Amino acid sequence: MQRDHLETIARFKKTVIPHPQYVSAFEQIVQAYELNEQVGFQQNLICIGVSGTGKSTLKRKFYDQYPVIQTELGKRIPVLVIDTPSIPTVKNMAEAVLLQLGDPNFNKGSAIEKTGRILNYMKACEVKLVIIDELQHFIDQGNKAAPRQVSDWLKSLIDNSGASTVLMGLKRSEHILEINEQLRRRFSRRVDLKPFSIANQESFWDFFRVIKALDSVLMLPQPLELSEDLVHRFHCATNGVIGYAVNLIISAYQVAVRKKQDGLNLQCLEQAFTESIWLDGTGCSNPFNPSFKEKSLTKFWEPFNSLPMTECEK
Ligand SMILES: Nc1ncnc2c1ncn2[C@@H]1O[C@H](COP(=O)(O)OP(=O)(O)O)[C@@H](O)[C@H]1O
Ligand SMILES: [Mg+2]
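^ thats the input. predicted complex w/ adenosine-5'-diphosphate below
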């Protein structure tokens, strides 16, 4: 692939479209940060959304906006970002936090010693906001007692550190708040990242603008002709999830480059859908095929089977 095409793909992967839900979630996190930074007030938030709606993107952008700074007095870490280990325990959670704080001895000492070190580092590094991603790992594990222990540990860490905290995860993460009342009281503020809906006019046009914006990042000579019918097709092809839209458009771009086309059209989107979203999505099962009858692809053999929205994502 030519250098300019690779650059286009790199630029596309880096671009964040500031759609209204994203901006609103970002602003709420800024507020939690500023309240802590300016007046020492602890404001906690829980951010819930199905996979691909942009939670980790939000986390990364926030970290970029408030990066680690090396000062004469030492390191300042205004925002501490933690990814929950896949099977969290007090030990590996504490180690993950110490690692992010730059402790070379992150795996040394008892759980109590580690927690003490975390609090010292957080004070010294002036941590104002902690973001904990992949919260669902707390409840994905078989051991019934562990979520309780780790969530109790997390609660004391939040209380003792005084930093604002944002918890992020799939819908089933909320269960952690159901089993831990003390944590629930601290996370009554909630911000959701939902898939775009076409049943709602406002969300439909937000989705329209997201697709338009993604296409314009490609800077192809011929902009995508985005009719309302095509937005419906995009919605069926992605279930309204921005992560799928990003994958679909990047694949369509590659098809367009291969076919030496000036812009994206129905044919390259049709091919991109089978290449990047659903291998079996051909003919009338492909939202970009003229014979496709509008419907959500949520049967159990289809890519957005209803399990993620009901059972799996709980
Ligand atoms: N606002 C956005 N603008 C552009 N791309 C986005 C946006 N939000 C998410 N994405 C893309 O969607 C994909 C999934 O996003 P991610 O943040 O990992 O979702 P989640 O953490 O909710 O599963 C990533 O490739 C990311 O680059
Ligand atoms: Mg994520």
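The chain has two domains: 20-192, 196-312.
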